[in-house]
Amino acid sequence: MITRDQFIDAHQSEFVQELATLVSFKSTSATGDDIEATVTYLNHWLHDNLKAKVEIISTAGNPIILATIVGCSSSTTLFYGHYDVMTPGDLDAWQQDPFVLTARHHRYYGRGAGDNKGQLMAQLLGIYTYLQLHQQLPFTVKLLIEGEEEQGSRNLASTVTHLAENQLQDVKTAIVVDGSMNPDGTHVLRLGNRGLLAFELDVTTGEHDNHSGNLGNVMPNAAMKLWQALEQLYDFQTQQVRIPVFYDGVDSPTTTEQQWLARLPYDAKQVAQQSGLANLSLDKMAYYQALMFQPTFNINQMLAGDTGAGVKTIIPHRADAKIDCRLVGKQSPKRIYTAIQQLFAADDQIQVQPLGMIPPAQTDAHAPQIAWLTQAIQRATGQVSIEPVMPGTVPNYVWTDILKVPTFTIPYANYDQHNHDCNENIEQSAFLAGIRISYEILNQK
């Protein structure tokens, strides 16, 4: 019988052509370009190659594709991916047409090659390979492929809520294929991710700016009032957040999670280089605990007064700041935002506006699927590490909180994929490894 690797090697050129075709569709969710054409292509591909039953689900935005492949067992696993991409940006910064897949330096370049069309196609081709060699899947697979991930997945939660009691009621496990593997090239299994609360503070103390020589000590300064508001939210001396309920739900890593952290790769010089701080000194455990188990309070933008050259002696009447908080454990962005509103409710000069709320997602460190998935990745690639929490934010709460199933993220793309940037790429070896991983997830021993 032909082996997994023999089949993949024999069909590698065909597989790359499938990726090239998918990349050729612009499918930019910000503009709507080629969305309909991309959905039509994937609909036919799933039906023709995987014999899937395909539903195109309308949303308030771009359609969601739900494909079902019935297996020997009714036990159902959901695989998530997305077909939309970011706009290409400055075309002159690309070394080729971003929508023409180009091979060089052992990589495939093109918009979506890494995020997420290369990973999506590797998923599909892994399933295709298994079906060609074994005729039927060992369990039922549902593929949910959305078209708004690059715009914050704004219709995903409502769609999954609607589907939870019908089309998705049999799902026992969710697997998200997105993101980047470890910097050293090893694959990783992620069990959770940090959430996000983003908001804006807008301070208005008058109708217009005034001369500081005329109304200094008379008219309140909006920039100074903004700083006072920030000090109500954050203690800059102790670096602790002052928002009531903020730390509710923050947990320390368990013994098992600490063991996983200890096995993760860590290069202090690389971290220092990435940060641009030569004197940055965090040991490995402190580094990973800061990224995975501690929430953040980050001022990402401040604007007030005159920003031109020289001195303009005005008292600013407007000032605003944008803040993002990465959340961990069971922190609730809604509860925290409500507490912020209550802090400033009595002050009509301070307005609070929400900019984004995504709860953190958690999967139990003792979930039985961990052994199945780590063994599959090891068979495909030789090694794997487990990351209890992804430092970034993705909408995995829709699976853990709405669908209420254990959720795992397995990124197929290389760390330096340049997603959202020019010359986005996926390493040829990473693309092929993704196909093998998808095959081995199905190849239960």
Describe, in plain words, how this protein is organized in 3D.
The chain is an alpha+beta fold and 445 residues long. Helix content is 33%, strand content 22%. The strands form six sheets. A six-stranded mixed sheet has the order 1-2-6-3-7-18, covered by helices on one side. A hairpin with a 6-residue loop joins strand 1 (53-57) and strand 2 (64-69). Helix 2 runs antiparallel to helix 4 (117-134) and helix 12 (369-381) packs across helix 14 (428-442). The longest helix is centred in the N-terminal third of the chain and has 18 residues, at 117-134. It starts with a helix and ends with a helix.
How would you characterize the largest beta sheet?
Answer: 6 strands, mixed
Whole-number mean pLDDT: 95
Give the total of beta strands.
19
- Helix % is 25-40%
Silhouette: globular
Strand order of the largest sheet: 1-2-6-3-7-18
Distance between the termini: 17 Å
Tally the helices: 14
Report Rg: 24 Å
